[in-house]
Structures are given as structure tokens and as C-alpha cells.
Amino acid sequence: MTTNVVRRERLSRFVDLARVYRGWNKSELSQALGRDPTKLIPRSGNPKLDLVVGLAEALDWSVGDVAESVWRNQVGCDPELEALDFQTLNTRSIEAHRSGRWEDMLAIANAMLERSETSTNRALAFNRIGGAHDGLGRYADALRAWQEGLNERSVSPAIRIMLQANLANAHYTLWHLVEARAIATVSIEQLEEPGRDSRLERVMSALARYVRGNTLRRMINEDQGPTDDASRRAETDLEIARDRYARLSEEFGDESYLGVANTCKGALVEVRAASGRLSSREAIDEINRGMDEVVDPEAVPPGDILESWGWWAIFGCNIALRHLHGDELHRQMAVFTNKAIEIGDRLGNWSIRERAFTLEQFRRQQARLDGINERNWSLDEEDIRVITGTMGRFPSFREVGWRILRGANVLEEC
User: Fold this and answer.
1) What is the CATH number of the domain that holds 127?
2) What residue numbers bound the domain in which 44 lies?
3) How far apart are CA 54 and CA 59, in angstroms?
4) In this predicted structure, what is the pLDDT of residue 77?
5) Residues in contact with 186: Cβ distance below 8 Å, sequence separation at least 6, in sequence order
6) Both 328 and 367 in a single domain?
7) 199, 205, 207, 210: CA torsion to nearest 10
8) Alpha-carbon Rg for the chain in angstroms
9) End-to-end CA distance of the chain, in Å?
10) CA 213, CA 271: separation in Å to the nearest integer?
């Protein structure tokens, strides 16, 4: 069956569903959709936007959900994957994750879902799908996958906690701070129960502390003036996460854990500067010593260690924004945002890119207020592509992205 035929059938189902939902006859439906009754479904199977909007309004769905349902590709399984059992697929998905082959991981994870015969296996498949989307920077898709996994019943406790901790991290990445803190707190409470000492549970315990500590760190910045309690709780979580990841790295010889531990170490510099335990000068100096480790990001192997230094650059920006002023603020922030963008590009890390672009745009706005003459953004085609991709992945970034593009004079005035 061709793609056009499949889409025509899907559209036909939506049209019938809308008619039944509203209690309309065909003439009333056609009038509501602004279509000739004999031409409701285009022969191409590709509806115009006004038809999608009309169906969404008739069904009380979102436009995006209707469009996704009509246009989504049916998941096909690679013949090679189709012949493999669930456990073999799971092993391959882990291998793809470790080597950063995210598209391969997604294909394998979808095959796992097709082969799942139990709720626990379906939940595990959704976890792998979430991990693949996270690697591709499709954070909203990752969040939905982990939610789907948690909707499965009779799932083993360890896998449920893994899904919860990953879901908390997705909310944190998307700046859903209240949700991230709440879910991470539930996970921490469960993982502190006696007997939760498998490797998976220990990793999830460290992740939950990492998420809650960093969420509290972000909340401190959002509130503009931390309370002693908030900074103390953030510091406690980040110290625990740092120590647990360091122990996991030593015990299992996995450098990725060491990278996350280093991210926690950098986050602690920011939190301690905010609380006054470190002076702004001590904090900035420590961040700059970290930047000495990545003078040339291209010379550093891609992975969690390099990513951690990208986050150090972001932490440096936050410290500068809170504590520095005038030329010193702009000089330090320009160094940090430039380094973060370099590392984000080296890794294809959309989350670091979002923070770096947002902070650099804020710095430029502040420079104008400070009477500093800043040149316009100079963006090449690759820069525009990256900013556009970031806008798609982070709804909260879209207005910032438009301002950057307008400021660089790359958009024609309508």
C-alpha cells in the first residue's frame, strides 16, 4: 500500500470521526471544513493546513496531534532486526547507545516494542526509545516515550524507577522545573529504601540526585536571590550525586560516570557562589581553570567528559550574570558562551546549545543597556540551521531564537 493511499485512509477515518463526534451529517461537516462534500479527501492524501486545522477544531484535538497522526510513517522493521529475539535486540540497543548511534538505537528500540510480549518488556522498549530520542535532541519525544513506559502495568520496580528518573531528567532538560523536582523527589524516596543496591538502582539513585540538585540550582537562578535553604538542598543533592557517580566510575571502569560527576562538581561551584560560600572571584577562577582542559574541543574525544566541560562553561555564564558587572561581565561571558557553543557543536548537544544561545543573547541585550557597542550577530548557514533546530526542540527558546535571527538581519522583512 502506497504512502498516499495510507494517508487518504487516515484522513477518511478522521473525517468520519469528526462527523460522529459532532453529530453532523456530511453536508454539515463539509460546511464546517469549508470543503465541497465530494472533495473532502484530497487524491494526493496530503491535506492543506486549513483542513488539518478544521479537523482539529471539530475533534477538539491539537493541530499538531492531527498532523502527526496523518503524516506519521508506519514503523517498519529492518528484516535483519525482525529475525532477532527481544534480549538480542536489547543488547544491540545498549551497544548503539554506548557508541552514540542514535538512529540505529531508535530502529532497534522500535523493533523491541514490536517483539514485546510482556508489560515489562514494553516498558523497557519505551525506555530505549526515550534514550534514542534524547540522544537525537528530541526531548519532547523522549519525555512522551518515558511516560508511555510508565503507563504499562505490572512493570518490575527497578524498570519503573528507571523510567521515573529518566522522565525527571527530560522535564529538567525542557525546563519543566516543578515537574522535574517532584518526580526526582519521588524517585529518591523509593531508591533510599533498604535493598535498593543493584547497579541499575545505584545509577538511578545518582541520576535522581543529579536532576533534583540541578533543578534546585536552576530554580535559584529563576528566583533571583536564593534562600539559604534552597542552596543548601541543591548543594547536598549535587554532592551526593558527584560522590555516587565517582564511585560507580571507579567500580565499573565507566568513564561516562566520571563525566557526570564532573558536571556535578561544576554545578557545585555555581551553587556555592550563589550562597556566598565561594566568592565570585574564586568561582570564576575555578571555572576558568576548567576551561583550560578544553582549549581545543576538537582535540578532546566526544563523550560525557567533554560534555561536562560544556556545562562548566554554562555554569560560568550563570556565575558571571549573578555576580559580575560592566566590562568584566561581558568579557567573561563572551569566553564562556563561545566555549559552550564550540562544545555543543562538537557533540551535537542541543541542550548545551540552547543555554549558550540564550545566555549570549541575554549578554548582548545587557551590553546595549550598559552602553557597550556590540556588533550584530554574525551567522552563517550552519549557525542558522542550529538555531532553527534549537527552536524546534525547546519551545521556551523560540522567542529568543527569533530575536537572534532578526538581530543578525538574516530574515527578510514581510
Assistant:
1) 1.25.40
2) 3-71
3) 9
4) 56
5) 164
6) yes
7) -140
8) 24
9) 42
10) 10
